[in-house]
Write a structure and sequence with these properties.
The complex is a heterodimer of chains A (275) and B (304). Chain A is globular and about 55 Å long. Chain A has 275 residues and is mainly α. Helix content of chain A is 84%, strand content 0%. Chain B has one domain: ABC transporter involved in vitamin B12 uptake, BtuC (Orthogonal Bundle). In chain B, α2 packs antiparallel against α13. The radius of gyration of chain B is 21 Å and the shape is globular. The chains are: A mainly alpha (275), B mainly alpha (304).
Chain lengths: 275, 304
């Protein structure tokens, strides 16, 4: 299996994307921002289409879209609160998130039509590729780039983890102690935007949501301690990706992203039933 | 000049333009279906915003993908698959997400995990089917100009049934949405209400996506309700405003798209968004004035 080049590339990119998603996913779940992560994966598609319409590199449009929207959610959203009342404040943000990404997807439809008018039917296929990249279709260079970006995001998340944890759990206290809670919130969403941009083109938008939500949610149910929780989230994501890739290799009709999500979901629903 | 659907003519005479619109049966069906769906999603979306279940609504709209691909695999009409998956999704979100003592972050994580599973199933079905899903394109982006008399009838009955359920449950549902703890203590079946509402939300999402496509359902489900609730917090006026916004945006979007090469979903989403931005800007301006110390804070019937 490892003698196949596409499999080595998939494992390389998948390993680091899994780490980045697992570690940042733990904070995403803690801060109740799963919907924000989902929205970021949706705006990648209109971003790429807009760039293509403007004649710019699609990847540039994709990264710009996710990072700008990530920062936008951070700037416009209220300072993150946790706990009961915080839950309500965050949910109110979700209304704004839903409105913003619907508008951006509407623009995506506009660009898609524009393309369809000028270049026949090829645009639809291209759009589908942007939306759902395939982890088995990675070249060696793309895999290395994905791994490098994911590693940087993982390291950056770990680097800000102490103040971010403080700011997520007790934002008022953290603010009073001089922790820049708002800036941290924005910075974290920008990091999430980078993860979304990389993950949507390398492994597909579906894997992003699956790896962000399920392993981290399982880790939150099992472990109370942040250190153990973050480690568990990363480990669950890794197990899902490795297991899913091997499974998809063994069963050719099973798409790799479906296999990875199936394992991640099994871990999550297992934790719901058992813990 | 006689009208020609292949070559629409937009002039300065608004009456003549509208006349051209309603000359065609497919356009009349589109406008009718649009109005039915707009009313339904306005009412359901208003409760969704109140209950802060935007993410659940979005996840239900994503059921279009596994639903359509499962139906194609089984050789059934795609709409059946969509309604079936929406219904099942509503039950699962209601059961897993609605258990007692869940925090918001746990609930959103469980909804996100469920959405990933559903999409993964969709990919699996597409892969098993192996061919090209012909109807998937029109399903993902809506096919409002191809709506038949039969579909209008189906949409009307689905909307009537959902609205009837909402009206019957209005009082306990409002109570349970605004203050679930107190409502639960008074014996209101909060959990069962939540599942029933999610099922109605699933129906509304499935119906709305026939006009806008599943990716843009929030243009009718979320934006009119969010705009109206920004203007006033009192239930009856804001519900009436939501209906007005929803139908207005739908008809305007459908009308403009008839005279344009771009799809209705784009216009509906853009007009709806523009309306929301205007409302928020207006509210922010008024809010600044209200915040001045000289002005006493007006207390509307605050419900949230």
């Amino acid at each position: 299996m490892l003698s196949q080049e596409f499999m080595r590339n998939a494992l390389l990119a998948g390993t680091f994307v899994a780490l980045a998603c697992g570690v940042s996913g733990w904070f995403v779940v803690l801060r109740g921002q799963v919907f924000a992560g989902d929205a970021l994966s949706h705006v990648a598609f209109p971003g790429a289409l807009a760039a293509a319409a403007a004649g710019v590199d699609q990847r540039l449009g994709l990264v710009l879209a996710t990072v700008i929207v990530g920062a936008g959610i951070g700037v416009l959203g209220r300072a993150t609160l946790s706990g009961r009342d915080g839950g309500v404040a965050l949910a109110a943000d979700d209304t704004a998130i839903g409105i913003a990404f619907t508008f951006i997807l509407g623009l995506g439809l506009f660009f898609l039509t524009r393309f369809g008018l000028s270049s026949g039917g090829a645009s639809g296929i291209q759009a589908a590729h942007t939306l759902f990249g395939s982890i088995f279709g990675l070249g060696a260079g793309e895999a290395r780039l994905a791994a490098a970006v994911a590693l940087v995001v993982t390291v950056a998340t770990v680097a800000i983890s102490r103040p971010l944890l403080f700011a997520s759990v007790t934002p008022e206290v953290a603010g009073a102690r001089g922790v820049p809670t708002r800036l941290l919130g924005i910075g974290f969403l920008v990091l999430l935007g980078v993860v979304a941009a990389e993950a949507t083109q390398a492994v597909g938008a579906l894997l992003l949501l699956g790896l962000l939500a399920a392993p981290a949610a399982a880790a939150h149910r099992i472990a109370r301690s942040p250190v153990v929780g973050i480690a568990l989230a990363g480990a669950f994501a890794l197990v899902s990706v490795w297991g899913g890739l091997v499974l998809a290799y063994a069963v050719p009709s099973l798409p790799p992203s479906s296999a990875v999500v199936a394992i991640a979901a099994t871990i999550y629903y297992g934790s719901v039933l058992l813990v | 000049m006689s009208a020609d659907p292949a070559n629409p003519h937009l002039g300065w005479n608004v009456l003549r333009d509208v006349g051209e619109l309603v000359e065609y049966h497919f356009m009349v069906n589109a406008l009718l279906a649009g109005a039915i769906v707009a009313v339904m999603s306005a009412a359901v979306g208003w409760v969704m915003v109140l209950r802060r279940q935007t993410f659940a609504g979005h996840t239900l709209s994503m059921m279009a993908f596994p639903g359509a691909s499962a139906a194609t695999l089984a050789g059934l009409p795609v709409a059946w698959g969509y309604f079936a998956f929406c219904g099942a999704g509503a039950l699962i979100i209601g059961r897993v997400g609605g258990s007692e003592r869940r925090t918001w972050s746990e609930e959103s994580a469980s909804i996100g995990a469920f959405q990933a599973v559903a999409l993964a199933a969709g990919f699996l079905f597409v892969s098993l089917y192996g061919g090209v899903l012909g109807d998937l394109d029109s399903l993902l982006f809506g096919d409002v100009l191809g709506i038949s008399d039969g579909q209008v009838l189906v949409l009307a009955s689905v909307a009537a049934a959902s609205l009837a359920v909402l009206v019957m449950l209005a009082r306990p549902l409002l109570f349970a949405s605004v203050d679930p703890d107190v409502a639960g203590a008074r014996g209101v079946p909060v959990r069962a209400l939540s599942v029933v509402f999610l099922a109605v939300l699933g129906l509304a999402v499935a119906a709305t996506s026939q006009i806008t496509g599943p990716l843009l359902v929030f243009a009718l489900l979320l934006m009119p309700a969010a705009s109206a609730q920004t203007i006033t917090a009192r239930p009856i006026p804001s519900l009436a405003l939501t209906l007005l916004f929803g139908v207005g945006v739908t008809w305007l979007g459908l009308g403009i798209s008839y005279f344009s090469v771009y799809p209705a979903g784009f216009f509906i989403a853009t007009i709806s968004f523009a309306g929301y931005v205007l409302v928020r800007a207006g509210a922010a301006l008024l809010g600044v004035r209200r915040a001045r110390p000289a002005d006493p804070m007006p207390v509307d019937g605050v419900i949230a």
